[in-house]
Amino acid sequence: MPVSPKQARTLKHRSWVAFLVIPPIVFMSLFVVYPILSAFAYAFYEWRGLARGDFVGLANFKDVLFGPTMGPVVWNAFLHNVYALIALMIIQNGGGFLLAWLLYKEPFGFRFHRVAVFVPVVLSTIIVGFLWKLFLNPNFGLVNQALYSVGLDALAKPWLGDSSTALGALILANAWHFVGFPTLVYLAGMQRIPSEIIEAARLDGTTEWQLLKNVVWPLVAPSTTILFTLLFIGAFNWFEIPYVMVGLDGSPFGSTDVLGLVFYRTAFGNQSASIQNFGQGSALATILFLFIVVFASLLTLWLRRREIQF
Amino acid sequence: MMRDNMKLTRRILMGAAVGGYLLSGAAAMAKTELTFWSWRQEDKAFYQDIIKKFEAKEPEISVKFETYAPENYQTILSTALAAGRGPDVIQVRAYGNLETIATPGYLLALDKQSVPELANFPDSALAAETVRADGKVYAVPFATQTMLVVYNKKIFKDAGVNPPQTWDELVALTQALKAKNITPFANGTATAWQNETIVAALLSSQLGKQFEDDIVSGKANFTDARFVNALAKLKDISANFSPNFTGVDYPSSQQLFVAGRAAMFAGGSFEVANFKSQNPSLDLGVFASPVAKAGDERLIARYYDGGYAVNAKSDKKDAAVKFIRFLATPDYGTAFTNQLKNLSPIKGIKIEDPITQDVAKLADNSMSYLMLVRFRYQEPSGSVLLQSNVQKMLAGQQTPEQAAAEINKGITTYYKPFQK
Fold first, then answer.
1. B348 in a domain, yes or no?
2. Do both A187 and A212 map to the same domain?
């Protein structure tokens, strides 16, 4: 049967679409969907070492959340993730917003600073972690040496060894590492604001604070949406900086423990202290995944509503 | 003409290359190639040397040695084994970690028929590579590790002090060193597992073998006065650790000792080779943890690092067993001990290095490295509990009594002899 030119075109178009769509779908299913589903399935079994044992229903989930051993560890870590989220929201995203505003006003040397503020983001997290670990070394680290040199000996501390400062130190290291990212996103958002709006506000005699609060902040809402959502996901998946700087145990005595570390220790074991439990590890990963998906979606929906079209 | 000649030469060369390639391919085909996985990147040269010796003895077998970073080794190995792959010969850990791999049937069980060389090992070494449930041995042990105090002989000599016998002597020693502005112990507690090694290195003689027996039988638990008092002693002596020790991690404390800025390091015998390789001019000695009063038994804490096992799913099991039998001979143990300065548990080895000789002598009188050997099979493991609670105690945030009670509470959740 002869094919009409129109049918041939449709066929060509369809195979072109299929050619574009099928490889990524296969790739995603194989390397994203399948592992997630299998981790989900693993969570319902008992594991003896690496061997899958009996189906145990929700027992692993119950142990992870409320068991006498895992429960307190998980909730302690969860709390630290929440602290990190709040602190980073203020320091990293808030700091990024203010830095972006400074750069937006194009002060002397702004081109240099625009690059400089982004450089740490490009560095490997492992390098940043080690660098900050050196800075914070109690005996020869830069931070304490600086304090000694200006006579503030009383403030010098074993930062990463003191349970009251260790988590804060990790948060600051993380903020130093990533503050360039919100800065750049906010800067792009600010540059999108039509200059007439800002000029009009200035003519109306707003103060700098009013301008930021009532004009700039609402108009960069789309940037805020993406940054808050990414930070939310990042804060609950937090792993690299704590792992590099304080180790798998959340040293000292669990004061820097976060869910990422608990997951790793549980699923893969901590060579120098504990044994692995694949089932509980998978259960924790599943809970974490669902928690992030649900709350990140809600957060995005809520943040979207406050965006203004212009 | 010239051109044709060149063409001809090229053809001959190519023919020779192809022929050579085919020949070598045929030779490789006749050989059984074993893969051997390890986390000991730093021992690569030694293992390659050993493999050469083995290949000379067994010309039809060749061995490929591959290493992975220690912190990822268990993960990579677990994943490979779970996928039905993995190497033919596997360097495995001991105790609880061995069980996670051996219990699902990934390792070949060994006995004195298949590996007669198992007779070369003391029972405690074989116990480390035995699964408790079936009582079978799954690996040929490779190293004895001991927890003790390493000291810098030159610093001791310059300060005019000697290795202590009793705890009081240790206290006097630290005061003498401090008076001379020398940091007595390089140790820090920021790396969690260091707390466990410090406890074993300094307190074993105060705890005693009887304490271990009582713990195992359930006659005593961790709230026992022997344990609490020992922890209190540790708390006192920790004032002599490196400055700001709560923030000093493992690598920093090692550096402090290697640089000759501290007199002692409480830790594993495995540190000696490491220290010497970083600073060959160090003159080091070792001593066992000091006793509470003169006349008490002097002990170090001992465990076995791991072993060499055969993948049960390997289709080259015979060759693999031949290789691990080779790794169980006194000749191998002697080479291992002398080249790696790491004590092999094989009986009848000849030790050249004087410090390793000292370690071997001390190892004759030992108790277990308690939490690893007895309580690293279930969560919360004794190691997790000891590490975090001692860390907390040394940071001044709980008393020795509280630390002991927390450790005991955690272990009691699963340890039957404590549940009476």
1. no
2. yes
Strand partners, B145: B303
A274 to chain B: which residues are within 8 Å by CB?
A: 376, 379-381, 383-384
Domain count, chain B: 2
What's the average model confidence in pLDDT over A25-46?
A: 88
| Residue B284, helix vs strand vs coil | strand
Q: Calculate Rg over the CA atoms of chain A.
A: 25
3 state DSSP class of B312? coil
Which residues on chain B are in Cβ contact (under 8 Å) with A282? none
In chain A, pLDDT over 70 holds for what percent of residues? Answer: 98
pLDDT at A306 over 70: yes
- For A249, residues 6+ apart whose C-beta sits below 8 A from its C-beta are A257, A261, A265, A270, A273, B192, B193, B384, B387, B388
Q: Which residues of chain B have pLDDT under 50?
A: 1-3, 16, 19-28
Residue A88 lies in domain = 62-305
**Chain A partners within 8 Å of B196 (Cβ):** 272-273
* B278 in a structural domain: yes
Task: Estimate to the nearest angstrom the gap between the alpha carbon of B94 and the chain centroid.
Answer: 9
**What's the domain range around B102?**
30-143+305-328
* A249 reaches B (C-beta below 8 A): yes
The torsion region of residue B283 among left (phi > 0), alpha (psi -120 to 50) and beta comes to: beta
- pLDDT by residue (tens digit) across A148-172? 999 888 888 899 999 999 999 999 9
Residue range A90-96: mean pLDDT, rounded: 96
The verdict on B126 and B38 lying in the same domain is: yes
The CA distance from B137 to B125, in Å, is 10
If asked whether residues A42 and A149 sit together in one domain, one would say no
Answer for the pair B275, B257: CB distance below 8 angstroms, yes or no.
Answer: yes
A22 and A133 share one domain: no
Q: Is the peptide bond before B330 cis (omega within 30 degrees of 0)?
A: no
pLDDT in tens, B233-243: 999 999 999 99
b/e burial code for range B24-56 (CB count within 10 A of at least 16 → b): eeeeeeeebebbbbbbbeebeebbeebbeebee
A160 touches chain B (CB under 8 A): yes
Average pLDDT, chain A: 91
Q: Where are the alpha helices (DSSP H) in chain A?
A: 5-28, 34-42, 59-66, 70-88, 95-104, 110-116, 119-122, 125-135, 142-149, 166-178, 180-192, 195-203, 208-210, 217-219, 221-236, 240-246, 259-268, 278-305
Q: What percent of chain B has pLDDT over 70?
A: 93
- Do residues B41 and B69 make contact, with C-beta atoms less than 8 angstroms apart? yes
Separation in Å, CA of A86 to nearest CA in chain B: 26
CA distance B193 to A249: 9
What's the rounded Cα separation, in Å, for the pair A104 and A106? 5
Interior angle at CA A210, CA A209 and CA A211, nearest 5: 90
Record the pTM: 0.86
Token code pair at residue A82? 């929440």
Residues B291 and B311 in one domain: no
